[in-house]
Amino acid sequence: MTQLPPEVVRIAEDIKEMRIRGAGRIARAGAEALKLAAQKYRGSPSPEDFRRYMERVAHYVVSTRPTAVSLPNAVSFVMKRLREAEGSFRELVATVVAAADEFIETSLRAVETIGRIGARMIKDGETILTHCHSTAAVSVLVAARKMGKEIKVYTTETRPKFQGRITYRQLAEAGVNATQIPDSAVRSVMKRVDKVVVGADTITSDGALINKVGTSQVALAAHEARVRLFVAAETYKFSPASVHGVPVLIEERPPEEVAPRKWLERNPGVKVRNPAFDVTPPEYIDAIITELGVIPPKAAAMVLRELFGYSAEAEKLVLVAVEHDEAGVYY
Ligand code: RI2
Q1: 201 given a catalytic annotation
Q2: Which residue of 133, 135, 230, 231 sits with most ligand 1 atoms within 8 Å of its CB, as the best mutation to test the pocket?
């Protein structure tokens, strides 16, 4: 069996260990991995062998992290082109490379468009709260600043991996007045907040949001204070498999991310849970800002039908991810 190129293995390991993270970034990295796998393929030049090898790569890449649907959607985008293509081995390689490049470019453009659309929904002088680090949410906030709006942003730390520090740094660098708060301070600052803007890992057909753990608590506090909550999400964060009732697996990460190893060793048998995501019901979401426009969460099914129709490939890939970690929690 043809070995996977080290570059592909490295990308997969980086996604698993979260050195590459963020739903959009892992999707682009997945597309890049397929492209590299095609370019570095040194097996037999028979189209059938190449197709089999690429199916194996696709399965491997999707198995790295289970929750963000952006990853299987990116892989499906590229693999669909390959499955539909005919021609020589060289032509098939070119098909994979072109599809991966197209996904990456379209994805980056979508983030920019979301920034432009979302920024118009923010008023000068408003205070915004965001959770974790979302490139799409940051795009909205930075675009608002670039439009000359003086906004203030609360960024949560986002335990246990502190992605909020990335958000803080990116906002500060863009000249946004940002303030870092511990996750537990969300409810106490909510009375000074005008809007919440968060990103998305997955949006299901019923409009539920799966995003960094803590998002649903932020939404609850916003709902209580009558603060509107917006989700910035490219359409490849919508789950085609959810239309067919396939559940979303909530990733459980190692306890060492929550508690120091030494403390765990000193307390043998200690129980620690580390779910990486949670589910915010559509009732707590005012609108989803996509590159196609602003939609109510209940329109998610329509977007999915429009974009994917019946996507059996995507369903298969999500099932692969589900098989990958049987111990996890499903939404
Ligand atoms: P963008 C992240 O997950 C966060 O949950 C964030 O809200 C979401 O991906 C979307 O990020 P993680 O990879 O695509 O940090 O907007 O677990 O960057």
Answers
A1: yes
A2: 133
Q: What's the chain's average pLDDT? A: 94
Q: What pLDDT does 186 receive?
A: 98
Active site includes 49?
no
User: What is the C-alpha separation between 168 and 181, in angstroms, rounded?
Assistant: 10
Cα separation, 316 vs 234, in Å, equals 21
pLDDT band for position 327 (cuts 50, 70, 90)? very low
Which domains are present in the chain? 6-112 (1.20.120.420), 114-309 (3.40.50.10470)
Q: What is the pTM of this model?
A: 0.94
Percent of the chain with pLDDT over 70: 93
Closest CA to 316 of 62, 119, 90: 62
Q: Is the pLDDT of residue 325 over 70?
A: no
**90 CA distance to ligand 1 middle (Å):** 35
- What number of residues does the chain have? 331
* Cα separation values, 238 from 23, 118, 174, 306, Å: 11, 18, 29, 11
Report the pLDDT value the prediction gives residue 319, as an integer from 0 to 100: 53
Closest ligand 1 atom to Cα of 163: 15
